[in-house]
């Protein structure tokens, strides 16, 4: 009997100790601060207001990469998606600050730690704000990138390539760009590319006027441009003949019908609707060398577009300390903002030094 009482007592003691231990483990350490003094005064909105008063100086555009009018228009579109409700504890970060933080991150590539001192918002909050705002931009501006669906629309693009770059029947230039990442967590060599860094691929089709027509973002950097292309819906549309390119027609002053096509570099496979340069070297004045020169004039437009977005949105110039999913959101937001700003503020967004120009038959950059 005494033995049973002893066992029962030990069981009760053990259970009590276990409960106490669990309570001590789950007890949260009290906060030292709800907010530090640094974050109690947010000045992002006031900073933009001050810059707006001196908009002639270009400070506002340099800071946000857009005019005050474009900023307000974009804010009106995405505001409902990024707003937060007031609570009894504290006021939320304003939608103006949320958008300004994101645009400054895209435009400068500054770290979250650096941005927290500019906007007086903690880096933990910024790490949540940037993907959220980029996702809102994607949703609201998605109509700014569209693959043409009619033969007439493709003919218009082809006419622009012929008039501006002297390459008829070209319906677009395509290529891939590696967006460098810091080594993603537990990714192994999945994103490791031939340049010996980690990246995701931005694959794009552009028209003769530096607009994105189609983009695919997020493929692992270890995959070649040709492999990325074959995994896109654009490739499926071309192969299945559902892209509605115009019917083959003769070139000017010729009789043989030639199909309409896209242009790419040697990484892509030659096909009926995809043209690439002749391989090897060719003597000066030969027809093959002339053809390669003309094709390169048209194809380099896509490289110019990559140069434009890297020049304006400098987050693309350095390795992103983001996981691939968030990096994909950032890149998609950038390409949509490119088309948005080019449509609404072309003369402000694209300066003459960013694009190719032809003077008296000589191509300059």
TrEMBL record:
Keywords: Hydrolase, Metal-binding, Nuclease, Nucleus. Its main location: nucleus. Residues 174-339 form the DDE Tnp4 domain. GO terms for cellular component: nucleus. The keyword Repeat does not apply. It is found in: Nucleus. Its cofactor is a divalent metal cation. The keyword Nucleus applies. One of its GO terms (molecular function) is nuclease activity. Pfam families: DDE_Tnp_4. Belongs to the HARBI1 family. This is DDE Tnp4 domain-containing protein. It comes from Pieris macdunnoughi.
